[in-house]
Amino acid sequence: PITNSDINEAQDNSFSMRRTEVLCSKCGGHLGHVFDGGPKPSGLRYCMNSISLDFKPENKED
Prior knowledge:
By secondary structure, this protein is mainly β.
């Protein structure tokens, strides 16, 4: 799981757009962007680069 200490956010005004860039806090790599207008409760919509995601199977105890 991602924690607030794993990412940094920075204002990105490139291409005449105002958005928030999401960066890796360790290496500074670009992970994607976050926008307002998402679902409740946060109201945020994340647009992340797929290469930055690593899905792991959930451990289910039967």
